Amino acid sequence: MHKKGLLGQLIQSFCCLPGVGPKTAQRMVFQLLQRDRNSAKALAETLLQAIKEIGYCQQCRTLTEYSLCEICADKSRDDSTICIVESPADAWIVDQATAFKGHYFVLHGRLSPLDGIGPDELGLNILEQRLASGNIKELILATNSTVEGEATAYFIGELAAKHHVQASRIAHGVPMGGELEFTDSSTLLHAFNGRRNLDTNVA
Amino acid sequence: MHKKGLLGQLIQSFCCLPGVGPKTAQRMVFQLLQRDRNSAKALAETLLQAIKEIGYCQQCRTLTEYSLCEICADKSRDDSTICIVESPADAWIVDQATAFKGHYFVLHGRLSPLDGIGPDELGLNILEQRLASGNIKELILATNSTVEGEATAYFIGELAAKHHVQASRIAHGVPMGGELEFTDSSTLLHAFNGRRNLDTNVA
Ligand SMILES: [Zn+2]
Ligand SMILES: [Zn+2]
Q1: Which residue of B has its CA nearest to A9?
Q2: Which parts of the sequence belong to the Toprim domain (chains A, B) (predicted)?
Q3: A63: Cβ–Cβ under 8 A, 6 or more apart, which residues?
C-alpha cells in the first residue's frame, strides 16, 4: 500500500533513526501527519536549521551553532579542569548526570592506528596547546572502557604528565543497582581489583 | 549543557514523536548530526514535502499526495469489497498483514455522539453513495474492538443491510501465540463464545 508514494518514502526516511524499525517509523509518520502537523513542521525546520548551522566548538570540539559552545563561553565554569570524552553525546550525558562545572574536550573518536586515527585526528594537538598554557590543573579521562578507549586514556594521561598536569580516570565497576549475578566477569574483575576502603574503616 | 541552544531545541522537537523521551531524542539528534547529515537532510525535506502535499483520497479518505490513492487507482484491485478501518495507519497495517486485494474506507475516528462525531464526520455519506451504486458486494468491518468501535461497526452493518450489501466483522480472540494465562478476561470470553468447529470434526 502506497509503497512507492511519498508516505512510503517518509516511513523509509524515519528508519534511519537509531532504534527505529519499519513498524515504529510507520507509527511516527502517521501520528505526525494525522494529529500533529505543526510539531512535524517544527521538527523538520529545526532539523534543517541545525544541519546548516551546527558545527564544532573551536575550543572543545563539541557540537554547537556558535564558534565557542555555551560551556566554553560560560565564564562561571572552571576552565582549569577538562573532562575528555569521545563524543558530543558523552559530554552532554556527563553534564546532565553530574555536578561537573568544568570544561570538556571532545575527541570525536578514539586512537585507532589501524584505521588511521592518530593523535591529530582526535584534536590532541589542540588539547596539548591548552596543557602547555599552564592554566590546566586536571584532566578527567572519561573515554569508554573499551580497549581503544583505555589506550586513548593512557595516551592522554602521558601527555598530561609531560605537561605536569594531573590526570584522573573515571571509575569503572558494577553499575549502581546492578547485581553481581548479572555483571560480566571483566567488569567484576575490575570492580574487585579497584575496591576501596570504606570510610568507616579508616580509623 | 547547550540547553538553550539549537541542539536543545532539536532534542525537544524529537520528543514529539510517539514513544520518544528525552534520552532517545538525544541519541537520535546526536546520531543524525554526527554521523548521518545526509539522511537527516532527506528526512527533514521529505517531511516538509509530505506536510505540504499529503491530503486525503477523495474516494477512501486515506492519506495520499494524489486525489485518488494508489489503492483506489489500482485497476487490478477488487473494488467490490471494501474494508472499513478507523485510521490510515490501520489500512496500511491490514494491507501489509493480509493478502486482501480490495479497497479501503477510512473513517478517521469512530462514532462518538457526545464528542459530536456522527455519521457525516466519519464520511458515511460518501460510503453510502458507494453502497447505493450497486457495485459493492461486501463490507469488511475492521474497526477496533472498543465499545465505540463495535458501535460503529454495528451502525455501518445496518447501513450495508439497508443497501442489501453483505457485511462481515473481523474475528476477535486470543492473539496468535498468545497464552490463555496472559489474555484478559473479556477477550477470553469473546474467544470462548466465538469458538468454531474444527474442520476435521465436520464429518
Ligand atoms: Zn566548547
Ligand atoms: Zn483511496
Answers
A1: B46
A2: 80-175
A3: A54, A55, A56, A57, A69, A88, B2, B7, B30, B33, B34
List, as ranges, residues 51-110 from A with C-beta within 8 Å of B: 51, 53-54, 62-66, 69-71, 87-89, 91-93, 95-96
Could you tell me which of B25, B33, B10, B11 has the C-alpha nearest to residue A108?
A: B33
Are B70 and A5 an interchain contact pair (Cβ–Cβ within 8 Å)?
yes
A21 near B CB under 8 A: no
In a domain, B116, yes or no: yes
Residue range(s) defining the domain that contains residue A92: 77-197
pLDDT tier at A188 (50, 70, 90 boundaries)?
confident
Q: Using CA atoms in the order B153, B118, B72, B88, what is the torsion angle rounded to 10 degrees?
A: -80
Would residue B142 count as lying in a domain?
A: yes
Specify the number of domains making up chain A. 1
Three-state secondary structure call for residue B97: helix
CA dist B142 and A176 (Å) reads: 48
- Provide the grid cell at B147: 465499545
Task: Give the CA angle between residues B139, B145, B147 to the nearest 5°.
Answer: 110
ipTM score assigned to the predicted complex: 0.84
Q: For residue A37, is it within any domain?
A: no
Q: pTM for the full model?
A: 0.82
Domain-located, residue A183: yes
Q: Pick from B24, B40, B49: which is nearest to A47 by CB?
A: B40
Tens of pLDDT, residue by residue over A36-82, are 899 999 999 999 999 999 999 999 999 999 999 999 999 999 999 99
Listed by number, the residues of chain B in 101-120 with a beta carbon closer than 8 Å to a beta carbon of chain A are: none
Is the CB of B30 inside 8 Å of chain A's CB atoms?
A: yes
Q: Is B65 within 8 Å of A7 when comparing Cβ atoms?
A: yes
H/E segment holding residue A81: strand A78-85
Amino acid type, B51: I
| Cα A68 from Cα B5, distance rounded (Å) | 12
**Cell numbers 575490575: residue:** A190
Which among B6, B24, B63 has CB closest to A50? B6
